[in-house]
Amino acid sequence: MTGRPRPGPGRGWLLRLVIAFAFAQGAVSMARPAVSYRALALGADETAVGVIAGVYALLPLFVAVPLGRRTDHGRCAPLLPLGVLLISGGCALSGLVSSLPAMAAWSGVMGLGHLCFVIGAQSLVARQSAPHEQDRNFGHFTIGASLGQLIGPIAAGALISGQGGALGRTSALALLVSAGFCAVALTSLWRIEHRRTTGTRPRTDSKVPVRTILGARGVPAGILISMAVLSATDILTAYLPVVGEHRSIAPATVGLLLSLRAAATIACRLVMTPLLRLLGRRALLTTSCLLAGLLCAGVALPVSVPVLAVILAVLGFCLGVGQPLSMTTVVRAAPDGARSTALALRLTGNRLGQVAAPAAAGLIAGAVGVAAPFVLLGVGLVGAAGLGLRGEGRTGPSPTGSEPADEVGTKTEPAPVGEALSDRSSRRSAPGGCPRDRHADRSPRSGG
């Protein structure tokens, strides 16, 4: 009763999870542009690049919900090393094969590994965080993704630009390096799940129907916002190299631009808590998605590299909001005993967007031009801004002003026990502490 409850001994597990996620996401962020460049070197056109990028998300569509079900009724930690091994294998074999169908298949294995890691990691954060810590912990967790997205494109650009610009050889080298980079994540995954958390979690064989989860107020909005934001990030990663080739921008410069976007996302997540207190979740989601939509469409303009850098920096800051807040929204809106499944449904939506968006982008790019997919992304993000306005149901004013006024599913925290007792004793002439005394204490304060 004398402080905020903590689900485990400190937050060392969260720091190690962020480190592991940074390595895993860094490998994926290095591998995905390398896959695009290697596909171009093997003779792929814009449509084929879009198809290969879409296959990355195809396998996870079929296994996300079963993995979420399993995690709801079991441990989270085993999914993390499994994900690392699949990512490493997919990266390495994508660099060794020399046909486009084989590259697409191993890109799918890479996507499956990323899904395993992310479901396990997000479920771990949801399970080991107190309700009032979820916004902060999910924000810190996604910093790991942003760090990986910062490091990966720089490393990919540097490796691919070397050795005379021979794309086939240098992109294969980048994929092999990314496999080793991902394997380092295994060193941070020891004892990351608290036994007390897994031991006290209720075990039941009943399954909450998917329809019930999707019918919970806030879950569909969280899924669709996350889908729009991730699709924008994904197509930026996969298609900015194609834009660079058409505008004669060097791969190293493209890597720096992608890393600049990721650095801005990190900056956003570091100041997430003050932004929430200033604007509230609804206003923050809406304005960030709206600005991101306009800026994404701005990428389609034939601007200079410095102007493109400014656009991507502001865009990265805006895109940093959607993912952590959509995680918290889905977790809080989901029925008890189905949080991992709800997160898996959110990831299924993400992967559906990653299948459909690159494929659509490839068709549009082949028919209209390589800048056109960014206009499509802008439209999707503006639609997500509308969902941010009307998708969150349980809202109410915050009496203290210390929490966002439109925080979904949160409860205002009571005053610290010591302060409340001191206040009460100073206003009461006789001991007793009955409810009538507490109500009587409020009248002098409210009456002035």
| Secondary-structure content class | mainly alpha
Provide the low-confidence segments as ranges. Answer: 1-9, 197-204, 393-448
| Rg computed from alpha carbons, rounded to a whole number of angstroms | 23 Å
Strand content: under 5%
Mean pLDDT figure: 75
SSE topology string: HHHHHHHHHHHHHHHHHH
Q: Figure out the total of helices.
A: 18
Q: Could you tell me how far the N terminus lies from the C terminus, measured between alpha carbons in angstroms?
A: 31 Å
Overall strand count: 0
Helix content: over 70%
Q: How would you sum up the global shape?
A: globular
| Major sheet characteristics | none
Describe this structure in words.
It is a single chain. Helix 2 (46-55) crosses helix 5 (100-127). Mean pLDDT is 75; it is low at 1-9, 197-204 and 393-448. The protein starts with 11 loop residues before the first helix and ends with a helix. The protein has 448 residues and is mainly alpha-helical. The longest helix has 30 residues, at 12-41. 74% of the residues lie in helices and 0% in strands.
